[in-house]
Amino acid sequence: METIINIIISGLISGSLYAAMALGLTIVYGVSRVFNFGHGVIAIIGAYITWFMLDVAGIGFVPSVLISMGLMFLFGVGMYQFAINPLLKKPNWEFSTVLFMLGAGILFENVILQIFGPRVKSIPLFVEGSLKLGFVQINWHELILIGIVVVSVILLSLFFKYTRMGQAMRAVAQSITGARVVGIDINKIFSYTFGLAFVVTGLSGILLSTKYFLNPHIGWEWMIKGFVITTFGGLGSTSGTIYAAIILGVVEALATLYFGAIWVWPIWFAMFMIVLLIRPQGIAGGRL
Amino acid sequence: MSKIKLNWRIIFLGLVLVFLLVYPLLGASSYMRHLFILFFIWAIVAANWNLLMGYAGITSLGNIGFLAIGGYVSGILAKTFDLSPWLTIPIGGLVTCILVTVFLGLPALRLSGIYIALLSLIFADSLPSILTQTRDITGGAMGLHAIPPFFPGMDKTGVYYVCLGFFLLILYIVYRIINSSTGLAFVALRDSENFAYCLGVNKFRERLKVFALASFLTGVAGGVYVHALGDISPSTLGIEPFLLAIAMIELGGVGTFAGPILGTAVIVFGNEFLRLAGTLRLALLGALICVIILFYPGGVMQLVNQAEARITRLVGKRKRSPAKG
Prior knowledge:
heterodimer; A: 288 residues; mainly alpha; 77% helix; B: 325 residues
């Protein structure tokens, strides 16, 4: 019993990190219908920028995260303006963007490999030590991670609800034509959406690499987990993504306990297939 | 004008065919024969992948997984049970077809858009962990070695001709599919989806048919792969073969019959030069894919068609001008 509760708690922790991971995918897909197949490497880039600021430039944690987020925003806007925008004008944009982002992801991954080398990097824990409540034991660091995720999710939902830009993004997500009719500049909204999503993705990369580790290849694994989560939650649905991430995080923790870590991947695949067979629109998605 | 076009293409095709048939007799080095064998196998894979991506609109990303399933099944059967590869290759293809159609086709082909890409990518990605888990049968991370060749005691020239045979046969099948009623149904679906429905085209059934066939043929290619090269390991499922295959299709031109084959030729022989780039090779491949998609979405075939149009125009002018004068 005690192990199960501890396992569920660790599942909740990784689940909330996966939620942060998958949010970037959901935001981009929800607004622009582009599925980012270079997502994992984008997260890696955010984490590497932070690591570089911390370890090489030697500035504090908060400024390096802020700088990394700013750079990620510019990166996202640039990526959209340079590559995605011309691709969206072509008839088979859906698959071209997939292949383009895959190619770009592999390009960036190997550029990172060239610059920083294959060695595992780690971003230090925020706080050492752990909290003990009876038999339940949680690291302070993981509590802070959950706190950051929760705060960012609240900030994001406030942004989508109350700011003009967020409202415009939601309008575009509902209907591009309708948004255009009321005078929303689609191009601008798309590029800000990419910027925002890259910021969220970069942040999730930073958080994940503090809990696990950071090397140039780890991004693909995160990305595929993100894919399963976004589909499970319903493509384009933010709240569904969060529920799905937490459910899958707990399932992963339980599967690791009972079957061993090697079966985690087949189980993710099986979950994904079951969702597609039974409820392809995901747990919160309505549209398909 | 269409006569000129037909003629040079057929002449070119004939020349290539003759060259492929006599090349080993002209004293090709063992290394070149190896490269040609790779070219035959990858051309089969690329042609089938293109059948899914370019014609049927099935955005599969897991075809390397199909190759690996066919290869493993055929290799294990031939090695463990001493069956003839001529029996195990079709069995491998059939197993691939059934597995892939049940686990990928049925769930995902009903849905539109991105789902099949997601599902097939995750499918191909979960295979290596299954392979390493079932070490007793599949050899784990080390893979299968010393898989028997097509005939006992066969040399490289024999393997070359067997692969050439498979290459011609399967490409012919793919060509026939493209020009069959199924191929026409896809053209109709692409040009006007609703009109095609009205004419009685069942999208799901046509797509399932093509998916089953392409997975079968890719599984057969997997069988040919293991018996020609003698080993297979989970690294076949790695990122590099995947990238190479995507680059082959994109470089040649998606949605054309000849494009992926040309692309395969360029990539298989070009990849040997890329080895000079060392660890930057994958970065270059990724950049290549990005550049093609962004600037040359039609691939090499687009360039060929443009060049041909220009040449026919020039020839036509020259023919016309003396008549005028």
